[in-house]
């Protein structure tokens, strides 16, 4: 199942996304947000709308997380490009929900930073409260679905500060979308690609994670309770780099779609 969130006559709605004649369309309005349904997507009451092509919808962020948990340095080549050792346990940090940005929104470069980077990543949306999972516990029942995330980073401030709250936390620094799907399997490998002005900058595959998704989710659950709607961003492949005002940044995750955003100065 795929869903998105969109604006309909000035109100936010979630909508079921289905392929109709090879084109993604919003076919129904979901009366309950998927994250409020305990992950049981089939039981959501729906009402029909006139089919709305996904490409014509005014999309909103498809998640309402209480927190955004990110994994740093989860691809070997990316750790190397920033001059870091491969971590021996997952490195996690938070982005505030206020950093969320919908598809099509402007990533705003703050005056405080001289270097703002893209980081294309696979996002995981939690569907069920998750706390202190056992070492061999299956994480699949806790996953609502997957989306694209751009973990925008003020690289100069990240290097300057001893922790990353400022560098990762500016408003608009967490583009997410365009939709959430449970129809991919990151364990078997999905491609993660970032393009700037149509030029490919990052190409990774989730098979190359240093820490697989089940290890990451069990690890985070030892630290903090994950709630339905919480977002985990799983780390970026090599090839990070800066963006400037006027750039168009696209993150494509295989089987999900493309998250497209624009860059502007404050
Ligand atoms: Mg990142």
Layout of strands and helices, then pairs:
Elements (H helix, E strand, L loop, with lengths): L1 E7 L2 E10 L2 E8 L15 E8 L4 E3 L7 E5 L3 H6 L9 E5 L4 E2 L4 E4 L6 E3 L1 E7 L16 E8 L2 E2 H6 L4 H5 L4 E8 L9 E6 L2 E7 L7 H11 L7 E3 L7 E2 L5 E6 L3 E9 L1
Parallel strand pairs: 6-17, 8-14, 9-20
Antiparallel strand pairs: 1-2, 1-5, 1-14, 2-3, 3-4, 6-7, 10-13, 10-18, 11-12, 11-17, 12-14, 15-16, 15-19, 19-20
The structure holds magnesium ion.
The site of magnesium ion has 6 residues, from loops.
Helical residue percent band: 10-25%
How far apart are the termini?
37 Å
Mean pLDDT: 94
Each distinct ligand = magnesium ion
CATH topology of the largest domain: Fumarylacetoacetate hydrolase, domain 2
The CATH architecture term of the largest domain is Alpha-Beta Complex
Q: In what range is the share of β-strand residues? A: 35-45%
Order of helices and strands: EEEEEEHEEEEEEEHHEEEHEEEE
Supply the helix-strand structural class. Answer: mainly beta
Q: Over the alpha carbons, how many angstroms does the gyration radius reach?
A: 18 Å
Explain what you see.
- This protein is mostly beta strands.
- It has two domains: 2-60; 68-265, Fumarylacetoacetate hydrolase, domain 2 (Alpha-Beta Complex).
- The protein contains four helices and 20 strands.
- The strands form three sheets. Strands 1, 2, 3, 4, 5, 6, 7, 8, 11, 12, 14 and 17 form a twelve-stranded mixed sheet that branches. It has a five-stranded mixed sheet with strand order 9-20-19-15-16, with no helix packed on it.
- The longest helix has 11 residues, at 213-223.
- Bound molecules: magnesium ion (MG).
- Residues 70, 119, 121, 151, 235-236 line the site of magnesium ion.
């Amino acid at each position: 199942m795929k869903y998105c969130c969109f604006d309909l006559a000035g109100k936010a709605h979630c909508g079921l996304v289905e392929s109709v004649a090879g084109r993604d369309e919003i076919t129904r309005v979901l009366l309950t947000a998927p994250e409020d349904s305990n992950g049981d997507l089939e039981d959501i009451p729906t009402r029909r709308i006139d089919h709305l092509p996904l490409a014509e919808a005014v999309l909103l962020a498809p998640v309402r997380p209480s927190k955004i948990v990110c994994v740093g340095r989860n691809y070997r080549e990316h750790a190397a490009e920033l001059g870091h050792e491969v971590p021996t346990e997952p490195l996690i940090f938070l982005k505030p929900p206020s950093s969320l940005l919908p598809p099509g929104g402007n990533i705003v470069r703050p005056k405080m930073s001289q270097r703002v980077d893209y980081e294309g990543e696979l996002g995981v949306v939690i569907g069920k409260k998750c706390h202190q999972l056992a070492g061999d516990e299956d994480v699949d029942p806790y996953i609502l679905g997957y989306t694209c995330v751009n973990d925008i980073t003020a690289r100069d401030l990240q290097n300057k500060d001893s922790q990353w709250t400022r560098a990762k936390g500016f408003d608009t620094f967490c583009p997410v979308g365009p939709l959430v799907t449970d129809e991919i399997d990151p364990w078997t490998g999905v491609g993660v690609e970032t393009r700037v002005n149509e030029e490919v900058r990052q190409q990774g595959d989730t098979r190359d994670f240093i820490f697989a998704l089940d290890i990451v989710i069990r690890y985070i659950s030892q630290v903090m309770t994950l709630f339905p709607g919480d977002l985990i961003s799983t780390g970026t492949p090599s090839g990070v780099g800066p963006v400037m005002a006027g750039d168009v940044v696209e993150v494509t995750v295989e089987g999900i779609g493309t998250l497209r955003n624009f860059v502007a100065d404050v």
